[in-house]
Write the structure tokens for this entry.
Amino acid sequence: MKIKIISGALLSVLVAGATPHARAWDYEGHRVVNQLALAALPTNFPAFTKTPRARERIAFLAGEPDRWRNITDDPSLSHCNGPDHYFDLEELAQYGLTTETVPPLRYDLVARLALARAAHPKAFAAIDPAKNRDHTRELVGFAPWAITEYYGKLRSAFSYLKAYQDYGGTPAEIANAQANIIYLMGVMGHFVGDGAQPLHVTIHHHGWVGDNPMGYTTNAGFHGWIDSGFFKKTGGVKAAALVKNIRPATIVGDPLKPEDLFRKMMAYLGQTHQQVKPIYQLEKERKLTPDNERVSDGRAFLEGQLVRGGQMLGDLWFSAWQQATEDKYLIRQLTNRTTTGGETDLNVPDSGNWPQE
């Protein structure tokens, strides 16, 4: 990912963010995405996720990955967390990839990027080491991988919760498994919400770059205006006003085809990418300007993207619950604990062929 040239007057906007990619939606916007997702869940979805305390916890956790980004003096944290928030889709072509051919596994992608850079070094712009302490400028972003990986974690959590519930787990074990599910639901929501913000799936994330025949804004502050400024200046945004646009959650992906969910997430981000030019056009027509008589068009567009994020998130939560498989290892260990009455370590697989002392 490249740092884009900005005007001196706008430098302070980016310095405040301290990262090339700003946050997608403000905390309030991410809360709305998680709250809309909760509204999509069926009445028989696990009740422990729907208590007032759990709902607030899930909404609060929508902002957690951005809080990790507040620590700017830790390159290791920035390295592992920063790229999960975006996906510069246009950069795939530089690496000989498309949305259909991009590898579904994160580190397979990293290898492809590194090999392409090594084979064709002159095809890529030089990277300033002083602006690359976290070694992420060589990357295109990992948003669809992050979403897919969190889905896998959530599906696993539903699997082991069911094992604890059905095979003699203690009240503490069940409560801990439920707490894990609430945590994963909340944090996962952040990345799905990022994927609904058009400026998080494009190289034009802080104003238009390169050829600009339509005369779109090059203002680097545009990103921050979309994330939070617009709503703050036009009365905020509340989930209650948008919930009428949410349908009941449905299944996403085929569990018998491991790549299917990832391809669905690529399609989700691809659809968001189709809104890049429209959002710039709205700005050009001043429909994202509070005192414009057509500002309602801009609000409807941004609210529609929040609804898209909330709907996809609800579908993913529902799918993880419905598609959770048996945790056979844990079931075996719980059954052994029940039948023998002995203490069994339920977290470490049987040593099998480990050398004997």
About this structure: DSSP finds 13 helices and no strands in the chain.
